[in-house]
Design goal:
It is a single chain. The chain has eight helices and 15 strands. The strands form four sheets. It has a five-stranded mixed sheet. The longest helix is centred in the N-terminal third of the chain and has 27 residues. Helix 1 packs across helix 3. A hairpin with a 4-residue loop joins strand 1 and strand 2. It is elongated, with a radius of gyration of 26 Å. It is an alpha/beta fold.
Length: 299
């Protein structure tokens, strides 16, 4: 008997099993529940909801539009139940299993490579898949355990854990021959190179004490990796806005007494998975990494 089909939420869980199995007969074999019982309970569920959830023909079984909406929520419910059971099993043993992680390329390579290596060395029973990506991964939809994101996520049902923040600075390559700006306003309309994406703001915000300066600049290049930004800025002898943890050799920071607005760094994980020991331990390792980085970055 499938352990998730008893109790108050059993009929919703059974709907998921029927759809995933492709029919009542296959669901009966998978769950050990008689086919007549499955049919009766799905019918009872439809009566309670006042909607037809499954369209049945002699050849196929399909979800109706209301059925699709109910199925999507029921599938998440079942995933959380399975995660809860897995968490309890792991609490009785050493942390183990597969951990799926994604992070932005620049941030990941600069700050997380050592953390991940040390984490795997400390927990030999844990396996880890890692993807550097600029795509906005959602753990709920993309089956990822931990998605590290820069900036505040939008429209996510995932649990968010604050890790810290990163800031950018204005740098000039060694072949920069222009005048050294004394105030951010001197950058108005100036061409700059930096990280970003299409549609990002053309303004840079600088803060010094209670002073604030919003300066409109011209982006000559925006990329999701620092390599092209550094190369293009050097080739064009131009100014670049780069993360403070990426300081090219021979470059100098400009407007050092001004701070640019820091960007928050968060870790997203599907609700119910954050209690898994392997996920919880990895989140703790990330928080330690960013705490140490913040101390160094403030110097």
């Amino acid at each position: 008997m499938d352990e998730y089909i008893d109790g108050q939420l059993g009929d919703l869980a059974l709907l998921v099993r029927v759809v995933e199995s492709g029919g009542f007969t296959a669901a009966s074999r998978r769950t050990g529940t008689p086919q007549s019982t499955i049919s009766r309970r799905i019918a009872a569920l439809e009566r309670r909801l006042g909607q037809t959830l499954l369209s049945r023909t002699t050849r196929r079984l399909e979800l109706t539009e209301p059925g699709q909406r109910v199925f999507d929520h029921a599938k998440q419910m079942l995933a959380h139940a399975e995660a809860a059971q897995g968490a309890m099993a792991e609490l009785l043993s050493d942390p183990s299993g597969l951990l799926r992680v994604t992070a932005p390329l620049v941030l990941g390579q600069a700050l997380l490579t050592e953390t991940i290596s040390r984490f795997l060395a400390d927990h030999p029973a844990i396996r880890l898949t890692l993807e550097w990506t600029a795509r906005a991964i959602d753990p709920v939809e993309d089956a990822v355990d931990v998605a590290i994101r820069v900036g505040k996520p939008r429209d996510s049902a995932a649990m968010m854990v604050t890790l810290g923040s990163v800031r950018s600075c204005l740098y000039a390559p060694g072949n920069w021959a222009g005048p050294v700006p004394r105030h951010p306003d001197e950058l108005a309309g100036h061409p700059v190179f930096g990280l970003g994406r299409a549609g990002a703001s053309d303004s840079l915000r600088f803060v010094r004490g209670r002073e604030r300066a919003d300066v409109a600049v011209t982006w000559r290049l925006q990329a999701n990796d620092t390599g092209p930004v550094i190369a293009a800025a050097e080739a064009c002898a131009g100014l670049a806005v780069l993360p403070s943890f990426v300081i090219p050799t021979g470059w100098s920071r400009l407007l050092a007494d001004w701070q640019m607005t820091p960007m928050p760094v968060n870790a997203l994980t599907a609700r119910g998975r954050g209690s898994l020991p392997r996920v919880r331990l990895f989140l703790q390792a990330l928080q330690e990494t960013f705490a140490n980085f913040s101390k160094q970055d403030a110097r």
